[in-house]
Amino acid sequence: MSATFKSIRSLQPLLDRVLVQRFKAETKTATGLFLPSSATSSPLPEATVIAVGPGAPSKDGSIVPVSVQAGDRVLLPGWGGSPIKVGEDEYHLFKDSEILAKINE
């Protein structure tokens, strides 16, 4: 499914959703060998956060903020997320609770 908007920056996630872009697998080794597509087809578990929603309401009505910010590196599960394709780039929307960890390097 391809998006109808021109830029991913015009997309603002709602509630506790997080928009991420997964890292692309290397198609070439350090020694210059090209890897076959079957070796690079599985998605990498790391991604960069592009945008975050304001947070989800708690049972008492207060807003619980999202635990990551735009620009953070995160660890994702191998499944889940809603894919969004803009041009040749692919992004994913995850709930904040689906993100496994924040990478601090």
TrEMBL record:
Q: Name one GO molecular function term.
A: metal ion binding
Of the GO CC terms on this record, one is: mitochondrial matrix
Please give the InterPro entries that the UniProt record associates with this protein: Chaperonin_GroES, Chaperonin_GroES_sf, GroES-like_sf
Q: Does the keyword Amino-acid biosynthesis apply?
A: no
Q: Does the keyword Chaperone apply?
A: yes
CDD domains, A to Z: cpn10
Q: What's in the keyword line of the UniProt record? A: Chaperone
SMART domains in the cross-refs: Cpn10 (SM00883)
Q: What does this protein do?
A: Eukaryotic CPN10 homolog which is essential for mitochondrial protein biogenesis, together with CPN60. Binds to CPN60 in the presence of Mg-ATP and suppresses the ATPase activity of the latter.
* Similarity section: Belongs to the GroES chaperonin family.
* Name used for this protein in its record: Chaperonin 10-like protein
Q: Which organism is it from?
A: Dioszegia hungarica
